[in-house]
């Protein structure tokens, strides 16, 4: 492998200017700039196929790791792990009890992890605050709780877009929905209006009607920006 | 060589005259000698024409749409060794201006009546669910398909309600998540709809919706090219085959042709490159019939095997973008009425995409992609307004037309080998649902080529031999 690294031919494709997946992960965990090691790896991957393959495997292994954690993470229904991280298995003594509220905030759950929860047809509250792997496909799988789910907290899940929120039409009993802090919603105010129209009994919080609208007092200063922002607003519709 | 011929012929350079006289021929001889020195590689010191395909390839895929690139991706994915398999994708149009892939509405559904179709769609939905695990390229942006999970809503009248119930049982059995709704439940869910004439409806709950076909095509292409697939923009104008005679049990003598070379002609030029290949895949979409006829399929006497043409022809379909500010909101599914009219939401600004398949006898002219606005006024609008009363007042803001690769035999995909051409695989004739089945079809064809049989999804029912045996398998939910 090392020998082939040195003797491998230069890559044919031209240099790409987008940020690397590795860099994005480092940035999302709070580092200011990518480390020298990461930058060196990226430079090498431009030139050698082997390094590119290794980085590919790394990403694949990481995604497999996420899938693995979802399969074996248990439900944390106010049975919290104690200070040493161990679970008390008292709830196993009442196997017929129906779970009503699940708090999954901050976990790595994704659509595979819902396998653990689909049997719970009395689930009333689901909190997904700050889960980075919850995306539109996860929301589409929530239709199994259509008859029981009353409260859903989706705040700060960075992957959710309007396409996934459209799937919430199957949750007919929903009364409280929190959509604050979703960076991929271009028009949060409009989305709130559409969601309230779609689910008449539901109270949507986390987005104000004025979000996304041009403020009248800033019009004189930002004439040029006004043109640009309406143009992008229309383009994203 | 930049300097002119005459300036070189001075008294001192008369010695070198013979060298410059035959420059062209000498360069060609030099190039052939250099190529012969390294017989395994196709590196040449002088590149004559940019964009020429390689002289040899293992698999040539005719057609660079979503089906063609999906096959290329899966072929490379299954052959794990880099450069273990040389795949070439040949696409006629670099701008994709007439390609069916990018002109499609982009919907995906599992509500079919044939279980193979349901399985293909389900696999493709799971592929798109984990698309970044499959198609992520190091150092590039992650793939964003802009998938809208609104589901499909099929409406059935009294006459066809029993067909819908039977289809519902098949879909549930295969694993699709579908729910049947009565008219009263429909009224409560979708108050903007007019229930007149509707006896039953079926709504897709999961893995159904619409997405951006251009993103899927580019993601497949980017990943395949990063794995070493060659891309060539050119038109396939003919094949060079080796013919053998074979005799059937009835005593009929057949001319079996094995493709040796594919002639790829460069755009806007007469120059062509014969690409030596082992396997050819026909994924040319609406032009698949033309490719098949280049091999003589369908040109023989009427009663023989070679007289049966490939029943795939282009059919023009219109798509209209309408704006209606009072129209239905975020919960609008991809609505398909029993009269044939379909409609889906586009974006958040009150725009909708709508259209209808014309009657068999009134098929529009396929020589161009011009839109017939009279069709909307006369056929589509009143049916649409009958079903959704808010659409009585709307404005058509845009329209386009695209081709279906329509299978005139039974409107289902054709996958497999032809007995007369033992190394051409067909993956065509999807009649409007090629895009939604493309990841699964790509895997199926790659398994056929590399493993010799189906491993993941068994598509023997969609084999080409049903055309020759005249045994159609009909799909009742074609839009």
TrEMBL record, chain A:
Entries under Gene3D superfamilies matching the protein: Ribonuclease Inhibitor
Residue span of region Disordered: 215-237
Family annotation (InterPro entries): LRR_dom_sf
GO aspect biological process, one term: SCF-dependent proteasomal ubiquitin-dependent protein catabolic process
GO annotations of cellular component type: SCF ubiquitin ligase complex
PANTHER family given in the database record: F-BOX AND LEUCINE-RICH REPEAT PROTEIN 9, PARTNER OF PAIRED, ISOFORM B-RELATED
Record family assignment: Belongs to the ATP synthase subunit s family.
Function (record text): Required for the assembly of the mitochondrial NADH:ubiquinone oxidoreductase complex (complex I). Involved in the assembly of the distal region of complex I.
Assembly and binders: Interacts with incompletely assembled mitochondrial NADH:ubiquinone oxidoreductase complex (complex I).
The protein's name in its UniProt record: Distal membrane-arm assembly complex protein 2
Protein source organism: Cyprinus carpio carpio
From TrEMBL, chain B:
GO BP: any one term: mitochondrial respiratory chain complex I assembly
Localisation: Mitochondrion inner membrane
Predominant cellular place of this UniProt entry's protein: mitochondrion
Signal peptide limits: none
A cellular-component GO term for this protein: mitochondrial inner membrane
GO molecular function: oxidoreductase activity
InterPro entries: FAD-dep_OxRdtase (IPR006076), FAD/NAD-bd_sf (IPR036188)
Keywords for the protein's UniProt record, in alphabetical order: Electron transport, FAD, Flavoprotein, Membrane, Mitochondrion, Mitochondrion inner membrane, Oxidoreductase, Respiratory chain, Transmembrane, Transmembrane helix, Transport
Pfam families documented for this protein: DAO
Cofactor(s) of this protein: FAD
Every FAD dependent oxidoreductase domain range: 58-448
Membrane topology of the entry: Single-pass membrane protein
Function: Required for the assembly of the mitochondrial membrane respiratory chain NADH dehydrogenase (Complex I). Involved in mid-late stages of complex I assembly.
Protein name: FAD-dependent oxidoreductase domain-containing protein 1
Organism whose genome encodes this protein: Cyprinus carpio carpio
